[in-house]
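Write out a sequence, fold above all:
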Amino acid sequence: MFDKLKDMASLMGQAREMKAKMAQLQAELAEKTVEADAGAGAVHVTVNGKLEVVRITLDPPLLAALAGTGADTDQAMVEELMVAAVNAALVKAQELVRTETSRALGLNLPGMDQLLGG
């Protein structure tokens, strides 16, 4: 009977430890960023480990092209490039979260990718 209580207490301690590790990991991930681009660097996006877009940079020649004739067509192209760059950066950020979570917790469990957005 006492062995089961000890096991339960140990399990509760491990759960508290894992919760603390996850909180620390989330704080660390918030400080990390990944970058991706589209259109050969014409659109550059930075995303943090909380999967938030923190910066979008447009190449000056791309902006100049928007100011010229055919701006509607150019705007559509830029919008498509922005979507592509944001999606690429989010994929990298999700991989960062998976890698850092597995590393911090010392886990490589089946299904971890789906749990963490993969």
User: Anything to note?
Assistant: The chain has a mean pLDDT of 82. The helical segments are 2-31, 60-67, 71-105, 112-115. Residues 71-105 form the longest helix (35 residues).
